[in-house]
Every structure is written in structure tokens, then in C-alpha cells.
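Below: protein 1.
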Amino acid sequence: MLFEHRRLGAWLRVAAVDPRTGEEAVATGPADAPAMVERLALGKLRRRLGRV
């Protein structure tokens, strides 16, 4: 999986992308917890791809 991080003030937007399919899922959370926001984005992407 690929992760793209964008900081928006106190918030962090993380996009998780599956390089094989190009599918993307985005999660937003506090900028001081990037690992948590990555886990959220990855979980959303896995559900979207049907890989729980």
C-alpha cells in the first residue's frame, strides 16, 4: 500500500492507495497521530477492496 500525507493545520489527511488497482481511501484525523490516521485509511481501503 502507498500512503499520501497532507497536513491541513491541526488535521492530517491520509490517502491509502492500492498500487495494483489504483483504488484509494481517505481518512482524516489529528496531525499528532499519523499512525492512527494511516490505520483508519488502510482499514477503509481493505473494506473497499473486500480484503478484511
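Below: protein 2.
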Amino acid sequence: MGNEHTGGAPVVCQAHANMISGDSDPLDDAMQAPGEPIDTASLAWPRLWRTGALFATLWLLGGCAALQYYTQAAAGQLEVMRTSRPVESVIAHPDTGPALRDRLLVARRIVEFARSELELDTGNTYRRYAAIDRPFVVWNLFAAAPLSVDGHRWCYPFVGCVPYRGYFDRNAALRAEAGFQRRGYETYVAGVSAYSTLGWFDDPLLSTFIEWSEPRLAELLLHEISHRRIWVKDDAVFNESFAQFAGETGARLWFRHSGREAEFDRHLASREGWRRLRALLLATRAGLESVYREGDDERRYRDKARVLETLRRCYRQHRTLLGGGAFDGLVETVNNAYLVALGAYSDAYPAFAALYRREGDWAAFLEAVDALAGLAPVQRTAALEALHPRRHVSDDESDLIQCDARHGTNAAGERP
């Protein structure tokens, strides 16, 4: 069995933030079947009691600001639960459109595949559906000092510290962002389509993602479900990179299981531009890490500007290969906080890919991940580094990106 979490704040792990994944397709509205009363018996009242107990604990641990944050978190989670209905009743409802009905059926099959074939604990998750009247369910705030890509960390009882804070109300996220900006931080707020409560609640399917394409839907559901098996306190990069790899690899196995792997290959090919850009952004992050460690502030600010300008010049030079203009706005505004967000989901991904290749099959891979999760933090970091030492760009992309953003140099190794 995998490492079990011990619980946490009502919302502790958010995934699939807008722009982090590189997906820019608009989301179609999912229809809510009207007129059906809420099935209160299936809301799992012990979990509602757990919300109250958890909220009381958090109230004792925090001051006024913490109380305000946890109040909105608990209220937001309860509202999602209140508006959810059993998937079976939504499927059977005569007012449910065929597109939504099809997506719910597909989601149900993916969840069953996760349980039966991927050995993931699905519990009662995704057995309900909630239609919410907004494009994102949560907004994540990331913040970083102007000369750091480590990122501000928020700490929660039981769960540990993570480099983001989630808000059910976008305006609340923007107010918190403004507070960090007044203190000189760089910030990034991302809309989030899905999140995991790590088993504290039976997470429902949401209208914010249910009508995504099947490959994207499979990646997201398997990403979130994988958090129920592995969550290591105080190691967001390990947790999120594992979930990212598990989501993508599990989705491939899902399509292979149904004889449609070529369809998943086409999905990956459609995201090739983002994959290349992500490699360049991670190289930029590594370059900034290097310059932030050296010299006085004046030099570090100067070198920071050089690295970011090299990123933009590299992007312009290879724009056709890097999304054909889809990411122009992102590249112009990228900052330390965005790179913190990107790194949380990507830094250890190559190590998990190497581990999967080494183990040779999914079951052995999960056992190896369980072993890594049980190590002390320093040992776990060393083991991941041994699996895949950090590189400027991933091996198969080095021939596509001819300029090196890490050290602020061009293809010839010259300073701009």
C-alpha cells in the first residue's frame, strides 16, 4: 500500500491550473440537470462532522487572518458538496444533455480503471457531480521574492507546507495577491479546474473540467486520484511531480487498455509546443537559481534581467516550435512566482519517468515510489537526483532549443 496521508485543510492540493498545463482551449459549459433535490443521505455526514472538527482545530491554531482563510475554504468546500448530486441520477435525468452524459460515463470508466488496473485507491471519489457557476473552482496564489525562485510557503496542520494557497473566491485571491505585491513580492494567480482533498472528502466531478477531451480528462482524474495514494508532508515537488507523471502515464495506459493508444499519441503531439516551451522555462528557472546565489543585489538584478531577456529572445527565435504564438503573453509576463508554480509540477517529473523505465511496469513503479516516499527528505532528494540529474533542457528537446536560457547565453555561448 502507498503512504497514507493524515488529513489536512479542506483544500490542500490543487492541480491543473490555467497556463501551468499550457492548455488554452476554452471550457464548454456543462449543463446542470435542474429540479432534482439534493441527496442528503449520500453527503456522508461523518465527513461533514469532520469538517467541523477540522475547522475547530484550525481556529485554535491561527489568528484572525488564518480564521478568515479557513472560513472561506470550509465554506467553499461545503458549497461544492451541497450542490453535488450522484452521478447515476445525473446520467438518468431526462434534462441531462448527451455530451454531459457521455463525459460522465467516460469518467466513471476511467475511475474504475484506476481502481482495478492501476491499483489506486479511488474510495468514493468522483461518484457525484457538481455544476458550479464559474469557470474555475479555485484560484491559486503563488508568491516569490524578487531574487528567489523558492517561493513563499503556506503551512497547514497534518499536510505540511506547500508553495500555493487556494481560494474559492477569486476576489479573495486577488486581495491576498495585492498584499504580497505591497511587500515587494512577485505574484501569480492561476485559475484551477480541479483539486484533491486527499481523501478527507469524496471529491466530485466538476463542470469546470467534465467536458474536456478524453485524454485531458483521463490525465486530470488520474492525477488527482494518485494523490490519495501518495502524499508526503512538506514535499510539494515530490507530490505534484509524481501526480503529474501518474496522470499522464496512467492516461496512456487507459488508452492502451482500450486499443486507442494512437489517439493519446495525437493528443501529446498537439501539446508539443507547450512541452518544448516548458523545457525552456525550466532552464530559465535554473538560470535564475544560479544568478540569485551570486554577487550583491545590483548584480543579481542585472543578471536576472539578462536571463529573462534571453528567454524572450529564445522564444521569439523558435516561436513556431514553441506554440506558434499561443504563449506570447505568458513569455512576456513570466516571473519568479510563475516559475515556482511550474517547478512544483515539473521538477521531479524526469526522475519519476526514469524510475518507471527502470522498474518496467506500473505495479513495480508504485512500490518504488512508496519506498521513496518513506525516505527522509535529504535521502529522498538525493535518490531523485540520482535517477535523473538536472539538465538545462530535457534530452530529446536539446536539438530544438538552440539557445541556453540557464546562463543567459546564446547558441554560441556568448553574453547578449
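Residues 186 and 221 are 31 Å apart (CA to CA).
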